[in-house]
Amino acid sequence: MRYMVSGAGLLAALILMSASGSMNFLFWIGQGQSARESTILGLVSVAFDIFKSVLPFCVAWAWAMRKRAYVIVSSVLFALFFCFSMMSALGFAAGNRGYVAGGREALALRLEETEGELERAKAQRKALPTHRVASVIEEEIKGMQKDRFWTGSQSCNDPSGREAQNFCKKLADRNTERAASLAADRLSLDIERLSREAEALKGQGAGQTKDPQADMVATISGLDEAGSKKAINIFVALLVELGAAFGLFLAMGHSFSHIPSATPAPISLKTVVAETAQALERVAVPALTQARKPAPLRLQMLENGELVVDQHGESA
Fold this sequence. Notes:
By secondary structure, this protein is mainly α.
């Protein structure tokens, strides 16, 4: 079970490392003056990011082996590489978020313009005089053009008499009605097109909050919109970089039980026995040799005048 959890953590760590490296590469590749310089900057940023993920292991091993100078150097380098990756991630997040917010703002402006045109078209159509269908009016005009007053007034260019004038006035009214009907048809088509365009823009997110996440953070934290966006960028970049820096170290943490230690190695029982035997031999052999030396001989005269040999007070 421990290895399954470690495997899942290892996979997540590798994904975060890839994400961090990609963010660094994409940010720095846009900072060079030429394609070659951009590629170099991108590759260097990826190398720094990989080094950042490896250094926690180096610090842990050096700490276990009591190499304090190595720990200090590795820690300083880790801090520098982490700050570098953090700045790169912040630049990437800010640029990407700004692009998305700018796109939403452009959609909102387009929707505002479209809705303005739609309202103007509706107002213009409403302002037109009452009219019938254009085809009906055109048929009536064609019929009137066959009247004798049409030909007698030279197509109403020179009407003479009251009846001819009334006829031409009626014909002019029909032409005006036809123009209003044609204008209404055109405006109806424009209104239909603008309505479809407005619905399409709303489907793309126009008319909604430009940055819902920033608005929510602003509501909770009390920050303004700009401050909320900055806080979100910092938080996201920090999470990615922390995961990329320590994810691999944490996923492989169970392996540190095998790190060699700088403490003295334990003494085996065989060594203890051998050294004890040597010590006993150094102490016991001189004592036994001293014990085996012949006792000094002394002569002792008994009461009866007989001489005997006395060895430590014992008669022989």
